[in-house]
Amino acid sequence: MSNYTYPSNAELTLIMQEKLPVRTMDDSVFNIMPLEDDDAALVLWEQEDNYTGLMNLRGLEGQPGRVSRVGMKQYMMQPGTYGDFISLDETEITISRAPGSVALPINLEQTILKRQDQLMNRAIDRLRYIGWSLVSNGQFTVPTPSGDLTHSDSFNLQTYVAGTPWSTSATATPLADFRNVKLLGRGKGVNFGQVATAYMNQVTFNNMVSNTNTADLAGRRVAELFAPLNLDEINRVLLGEQLPQIEIYDDGYLDDSGTFQSFIPDNRVIVVGKRPGGQKVASFKMTRNANNVDSGPGMYTKVIDKGELQVPRTIEVHVGFNGGPVVYYPSAIVRMSV
């Protein structure tokens, strides 16, 4: 009788825990919105109100002033429940036997690990899609394939609209636009200066670097009069004015039709500021999941052999997660339309 060898569910979970940090560390959205396990059934978070006022003058022998504690707002969101599986069908299982190995177990380990990689890639792309949709548009919406249910939410991020589109190179004012964005940090407890990062795709940067307005960016060329600016030179100009540093992010995903979809839309800049204490601006909470050991939080992976239950035989590889995004400080993100 033929038998099969493949990683146990415990081994698959360990492998995924090793792969996940490596697969996510290279994407900037996880700098903005890092993954965070939360052993809760709902996505919950709290946010303090802004600190206000100045300390009272007491004077010698005087009583100190009494100050009311700042308020605290609590937010709650139903987590999204995500998951995919891939079936290894009878044909794939049958031909996995190596020629001349009739008495040996059929090793499906590499096949299953490849399918796990494929499903993990879809899961990470879903996380990236939610994160970039949220910071680009202030909201995200994910429907089921049938459209019967959606996972969605919105956050009141700050916005800024350029007076002249950056594609109008002769009169656009990207430098002045970043100066105006820096002012949006006033009273918000966030710094949109040189410690902030401005994310844009290549199309938007191409418009910016093509600026010919000598009253703005083109008048700050640092090489010679007609030399084109590059990213390093532009960032030096911005640094000199204590303005956000640009990071070009041109990634996206292939949809099911094979069409490339950019995560950051053209003519959109996302400026992420820094809080005084370096607090996280946002995170993606991975919530409790009954498919994990002890129903713990985080991504799950399973392999299910249905050989004893049905004909033709199939083996299913599953990956999924429960969770949703949290924006602790919506005022720390500015969506620029340029």
Describe the structure.
By secondary structure, the chain is an alpha/beta fold. The chain has 7 helices and 18 strands. The protein has helices spanning 9-24, 29-32, 90-95, 109-137, 174-183, 202-209, 231-240; strands spanning 4-5, 35-37, 43-48, 72-77, 80-88, 106-107, 139-143, 150-154, 158-161, 197-200, 245-248, 252-254, 260-262, 268-272, 282-286, 300-305, 315-327, 333-337. Strand 12 and strand 13 form a beta hairpin. The protein starts with a strand and ends with a strand.
Q: Topology, pairings included?
A:
Elements: E1 4-5, H1 9-24, H2 29-32, E2 35-37, E3 43-48, E4 72-77, E5 80-88, H3 90-95, E6 106-107, H4 109-137, E7 139-143, E8 150-154, E9 158-161, H5 174-183, E10 197-200, H6 202-209, H7 231-240, E11 245-248, E12 252-254, E13 260-262, E14 268-272, E15 282-286, E16 300-305, E17 315-327, E18 333-337
Parallel strand pairs: 1-6, 2-15, 9-18, 10-11
Antiparallel strand pairs: 3-4, 5-17, 7-8, 10-14, 12-13, 14-18, 15-17, 16-17
Q: Unreliable runs, pLDDT <50, ≥5 residues?
A: none
Beta percentage is 25-35%
CATH top level label: Alpha Beta
Give the helix tally: 7
Overall structural class, as computed from helix and strand content, comes to alpha/beta
Give the end-to-end Cα distance, rounded to a whole number of Å: 66 Å
| CATH architectural designation | Alpha-Beta Complex
- CA-based gyration radius: 26 Å
The biggest beta sheet is recorded as:
5 strands, mixed
Shape, per Cα inertia axes: globular
- According to DSSP, the number of beta strands is 18
CATH fold node name: phage-related protein like fold
Order of helices and strands: EHHEEEEHEHEEEHEHHEEEEEEEE
Number of domains: 1
What's the helical proportion of residues?
A: 10-25%
Mean pLDDT score: 86
